[in-house]
Amino acid sequence: MARTPRSLFTKIAQHLLSLALMLATLSAMPALALPGLDPDFSDAPPSSEQLPPPDVAGALTPDRTRLQLAPDLPAEPVVMPAVVPMSEEPDAATPVLSAESLSLSPLGVALLLILAGVLARRAYQWWMVLNQRRRIDQPDWSALRSADWPVVTLLVVAREVGTAIEPLVEYLLTMDYPPERLRIRPTGQFTTAQRGAVAALLARHPGRVLPTADRPLDGIREADTDIVLILRAEWTPDRNFVRQAVAPFFDPSVGAVLAPLDPVVDGHPYTRLRQLSRAAWARIVAPWLARANLPALGDTLLFGVRRSAVAAAGGWRQTTNERCADLVWRLFAEGWHSACQTALWVSGKQRDPQASQLPGLFVHLPALLASQRIAWRQKGRLLGYALARGSRHLAGLGILLAVFEYASGNSLLAGLALCILLTEALAGQSLTLLAAGAQACQRGTQVSLLPLALLRLAGVGHALH
Amino acid sequence: MHSTELGQSGWPAGWPLGLPLGWPLGWPLAWQIALLLGGALLLALLLRPARREWLREQDDEASPAPRHEDRIDALRTMATQEFSDMLQRVRDNGGVMRGIDLDGEPVLVLGSKQDLASQIEPGTRRIGFGVLTSQRLDVPGELVCERDLFAEGRASVAQSAVVRSLLSLRDVAIGVRARVTGRVHADGRLDVAEGAWLHGEASAGQALALARRTRFVRLHAPVIEFGTREVPAARPGGTLPEYLPGDAQHDAANRRYIVHGDLSVPAGHRVMADLIVGGRLVVHENCIITGSLRADRSVRLGQGVQVEGGIVSPSDIRIADNCRIDGPVMAGTRLIVGTGCVLGTRGDPVSVSAARMRIATGSVVYGFVSARQAGQVVAPQDLQS
Lengths: 465, 385
What we know:
The structure holds two protein chains of two kinds. By secondary structure, chain A is α/β, with parallel strands linked by helices. Chain A contains 15 helices and nine strands. Chain A has helices at 6-31, 99-102, 106-131, 165-172, 192-204, 216-222, 241-246, 269-291, 307-312, 323-333, 358-370, 376-389, 391-408, 411-437, 450-457; strands spanning 152-158, 182-188, 227-232, 236-237, 254-260, 262-263, 300-306, 337-340, 346-348. The model of chain A is unreliable at 1-8, 29-102 and 438-465 (pLDDT under 50). Chain B has helices spanning 29-55, 70-82, 84-93; strands spanning 96-100, 106-110, 126-127, 130-133, 137-139, 144-145, 149-151, 155-157, 162-163, 166-168, 172-174, 179-180, 184-186, 189-192, 197-198, 201-204, 207-210, 215-226, 249-251, 256-259, 263-265, 270-271, 274-277, 280-283, 288-289, 293-295, 298-301, 306-307, 311-313, 316-319, 324-325, 329-331, 334-337, 342-343, 350-360, 363-378. In chain B, β19 and β20 form a beta hairpin.
């Protein structure tokens, strides 16, 4: 059985934490004697079916039908001035939803703002899902079949001792790319046997296979071509790999090429889920980020750099943990875009997935906002992106505010907010990604969801196809 | 005046369907169970197709890379390997032979002096067998061929005929308003008459010529001529003054200018760098750009502009008459190319790609053209419509 990726446990832990938060919140509601749990919304006296059996100690009192799971708490409700007292009959001439009753505390206003933000983001994502088929407004780099292809260096990075480098290099030499314009350089700490194999390759393919380098950074630094591609030796690229990785560099603004890794199908359900998620991400999220000229970091890896751009951005910083994300953000600050090439297919196991690039973004955010080479519109998008990446934290803050709102007695708003935010925190992203996957048609992947199928039947489907 | 009695919360009493109002915890047990079951059923319905997809072991295709050559390669393999004996026999002896291909579909093998029209019943509108011939192949007008066609000689598809895939070791001529629903390839020259539709990829070993009003998706040939080729207008002589964008960020090390808003290059200037524009880019007449162009909004080139690099935009690209582009032209949405334009050179072919494309007659592309949604050859006077 395949080894379960580390990020699986991280995700499970995150969801368990969210669940624990939800349960804690729900259990805290009765203890706060929340009017939101009050079923007495009608003037009619409660029917006998509504009442609990009398042997449940302190559960409901017939006179006020207030839920009191904790009998020692005070029976008097917490009444806000904006709430009509329940014991009084409402004035028939006064509308129930008056301006006075709608007045909110600053806490409520903040909660409403968070709700609006969360809902707007989710609505925007759904809008993207429904419209992404119609709006293909990115250059199709997979259509770049004839061009004056540049000379490139391909670094084959062997991180594990004993990786069979020779067959991979032989395979890479047959790539669909002009042979005289592709140079392959094995990189890593090799055993004596591997060095012998590389020496044989050098003898067989003089000029096309270069001597080994100890570290990838050395390989990049010593390359004599402007474009350098990076590939790990344990991954398997498609035959179009070099062509697809080089194609975005014909855009003069592109300094790096990112692409998601295609997980190896090993029968593990998590791997399959990742594959589906990747297809949806490639169809929805990546094009949106590309449209906004934002780096498509998150589930991608760096497959190619323009050395002149790297030099302009200050070079590689070996000390940082997330070197690729660090470089991409610094390139962005210098006005270089990072293309996400979803037509580039490399399959392999991602040992250290770049699950979150948020720290990298926040570290570089001041420099990005101060950069003269980024337009103000772009900076606005960047801020929105940062907020979007932090939506889980936003939802958590909203849940906290909702609990306080319960305590303050504004039960309607708090209950609504809790439902929305908990759904958002637990399943919002997953549902949107699944819906997006309904249209993901890469590698034969066609996830389908019933609502979207019904939409198609209802005639809305032309927007989806 | 209230027509409905409202509860204290503002909702009508007993709404909806006579259900008791308030939190579901206050509902009768039967209603709570019904609510739970209904919610669970809805969730199960939502996730059932996703679960089925999830439990599939793997995807169908081994590789996502577009394999435009597959069908033609398969056809060539079929003709040169599976049916090579039959073809040799009819080549030597003439006559007609019938065979079965690897998919179990019938195949008609025609020898010399045998034409397709003589092998089908008069009035036949549709044939369901493949055709291999060692000679010239003529597809009669308005005939629908549901299987692949192969000809060692010249092939012609008459007016309003429909073929699926066609491979010729010589030239191919597609007639007026004929349609090719799949792939067509000629090792020699491919000529497409007016009003024809090429739904798949069309390629040629030597040259590909499309008449006015033809529609296409992908074209690949050393030379792709749209309509009758115009003689390029004379280029401006002499040295042009260099244009330096005033409010641009100049990245001297990488020879590029970064402009946040729109940029307009005045007529008759030379730009010696790449231009990266956040808004719209307009290059007026007779400019020379020694570099590549990139604009986020749209790119417009005036008449007689030369770009010694590529043009990239996620939006529209509009190229006026008599321009010359040496690099790839990649538009996200729409590409319009005027008459007399030359994209690429014979030695350095280029790729031209957009979602929708209109190319005026008189232009030439060396290399590959891809219109993801639709491409059309139009007369220059129709380009504005």
